[in-house]
Amino acid sequence: MDGTEHLESVGAVDVPFDPEAVTIDDANVFELLEPALQGWWLETFGEYVPENEGFFTPPQRGAIPAIFEGTNTLICAPTGSGKTLASFTAIINELYRRQRGVRSDANAGADDVDDQEPADSAGLENSVYCLYVSPLKSLANDIHRNLEMPLEGIESIAADRTERMGEIRHAIRHGDTDSSTRNKMLEETPHILNTTPETLAILLNAPKFREKLRTVEYVIVDEIHALTAGKRGTHLAVSLERLEELTEGDLTRIGCSATIEPLSQVAEFLVGCEKAGGDPRPYEIVDARFAREFDVQLECPADDLINTPRDRIQDRFYRMLHEHVQAHTNTLVFTNTRSGAERVLHNLRERFGAYDETNSGCHHGSLSTEVRQDIESRLKSGDLEVVTTSTSLELGIDMPHVDLVVQVGSPKSVAALLQRVGRAGHRVGQTVTGRVIALDRDELLECAVMLKKAAEGFVDSVSIPENAQDVAAQHVYGMAIAEIRPERAVRATLERAYPYREYSDAEWESLVRYLTAEYAGLADRNVYAKIWRDENDPPDGEYHYPEFPVGEPLIGKRGRLARMIYMTNIGTIPDSFTCDVYTRATSEWVGQLDEEYLDTLERGDVFVLGGDNFEYRYRRGSKVYVDRTHARPTVPSWYSERLPLSYDLGCEILAFQRAVLEQYEAGGPPRLRAWLRELPLDDNSVRALSRLIDHQCQYAGPESLSTDERLAIEVVRDRDEYERHYYVHSAYGRQLNDGFSRLLAYRCAEAATANVRVAVADNGFVLSMPLNRKVDIEGILEDIDPDQVRKELRAALSGTDLEKRYFRINATRSLMILKRYKGHEKSASQQQVSSEMLLGFAEELAEFAVIEETYREIIADKLAVAELETLIGALEKGAITIERQLLESPTPRGFGLATLSASDVVLAEDESAALQAFHEHVIEEIGEQSVRGLAGGSDDG
User: Fold this and answer.
1) 594: which strand partners?
2) What does each C-alpha distance from 714 to 423, 736, 796 come to in angstroms?
3) pLDDT in tens, 184-241
4) Inter-residue contact 639 to 616 (CB < 8 Å)
5) Whole-angstrom Cα distance, residue 419 to residue 23?
């Protein structure tokens, strides 16, 4: 077996894996294939020599035999390594075998083939055998096109050999499929159906097509890493259990992922439990994540990102990018925001005559479908030299000509980095080439750690939502609509899905009380019962459900329009809208804000809109009211658009900073530079990082830098603004810091009897209060009980805009508010108004499922409460110490927190000036001599 490949067999519990105990070579795999498939592989991939390995890629070598045996399989391998083809090969082989086997008739000649019935009579029924589920419509479309090549090739080879083979039909069905095409699928049903999670849920409740799914034997979940961490994945997990039940438990599940961790947890998510709350079904993991060669390096346009003029940094950056593009065939450039993608393309075209509309383009989610599809088509054909994008091309179409990926700034996780750079070198055997360009010092350090950990095989772990009541509400409603069933059977189906394996009696009762509208007053607010629950007792001696035991609690649907309501309202992707912004004093309209950005704002926060500063006051429905102000912005404009730093990578950054300090204390900047040069960093990156650490330690000492064993806090008195700032250097990522800052701000406001403003970033947060107020920050931290964190966060969230927005989202998902009803559609802003009318009433109801889910989602999923509890516990036990310093100006590692801005290709001039002012203060404190020594220091050591 190839040393880069691991095949792990797992039953109900994990067992140790010994690579030497398993031998899978190309000959084993090749011999499994039917003659026509063997012929297609030879025709497509070249001559097969049994003694030479490499005919099949590592994921194919591991997955094809496992799927052939009907084993649930998770395939984890880089983009372009053949994992999707590995998934389909064994399935096509089996379908072809059945067609060929049943059709083979010694008395029938080749001329008789045309006189026979359609393929259904030859072995395959007129129904679905394989479901391919993709998170993206574009990916489903691409796979659909890519299936045509092997199927047509196999049919052609079979015909040349006079082998009898019936047609294997395949089709695509998602939200864009027209009704005529959908109806035709009932008459001539595809044997392989490509779809999305939402369409699968609809098909499970479509009376006619539901019957076509009873023959499904294989389910492929592609790009599973894009689903597991959100409620789309939760929804799909329950759909798979409903499908398993429909097919009477004969499903083989295959998951495909490029970069994900932990593999065992993701595999268990894929396969579900054998019985409610029980052990996972057996599965195998094909781990070929590092089966391809990676060439990824970090670059920086200057070795001094503070003193080098901003326009010079920009010039060097675009020159570097231009040279990279010219040295390659097709280049994909990722930025961290949509506006950044637009800006990079614009500047490339403005600065260099080599780029225009014919050979360059931009792709992101705000562009029209037609524009995106045009870029995808031209990228796939190799007609575009460079395409800029944000996140929209992380997944999706095959791009065989892309041979370089450039990442501008930090992608915020190792998994995202590997996913993005994996788009290059898409052909088997090609080296994956990527360049990461950092434009500020915080991201430079972040990216250095990211590349170091990627080279070591590290991948950030995924966090899977658990016991989501809104998704449960949809599926219980759907199961009740499909048929009257025992309550225990409905609950058992739910609890066989991995996210509900620990679902409690209390949670189930809360859910059913909501769905049956047992709460007084719901009907008065147009929230009606969706299901009924009753014991199967014969009224007046008449026994209505003889198929169930007497006394068995049953569940069924309520209302004649139940199916219509369900089919037009299910799904988990929330609607969003923009809010109009008005001044309180004059009711002047000043612009619009995305509501996701409003999640970040608290009363008193200052933001920039249209070049002016505004202080946020309150929101009413889709209207936001503000006051004009000259105060410094506290929340940057890019905040809601960027992905947060992963918690795992944050922990690695803190451990890296401890290692950096050890090198620095052992031999100063020369020793540190020599150590950094062992990493995939260019010389500018090494020097810039060394300068950052040297300035930090000279200005405030090594203890001013947070590590995995120390939490550093700076207290800075800003006499100009008459404020006291607490810079908390918790580099655990924005999600944890959002919860951590809310927890501390809530307590600090009580202790100081003053308003506390909060500004949050990935590498920490800032608490600001009037200069004449101060708090014992260490004492407050030490007094927090880890067991009370969730309770205190809930109290801090009550009444906030964040709570209001998530209540609307969950009320809509739970079908408490209907987006569509009798041909009328309610916009997101109208949903918000409806939800605010319901919120006060709902909060008064005991253990109301929709309210409980609102707080669970915010606290557990958005604010990373489990990780926050771990941090608070470590502080309580002394495993992490607290180091507080009183300073006149922030340290170099605090500059980013002080300005709360970031480089998405271009830094604002006012931010640059603020950074320069902070830097000059640091230089004055540490003295010019050390700076000259650093700048002219030798590279020895």
Assistant:
1) 578
2) 41, 19, 24
3) 999 999 999 999 999 999 999 999 999 999 999 999 999 999 899 999 999 999 999 9
4) no
5) 29
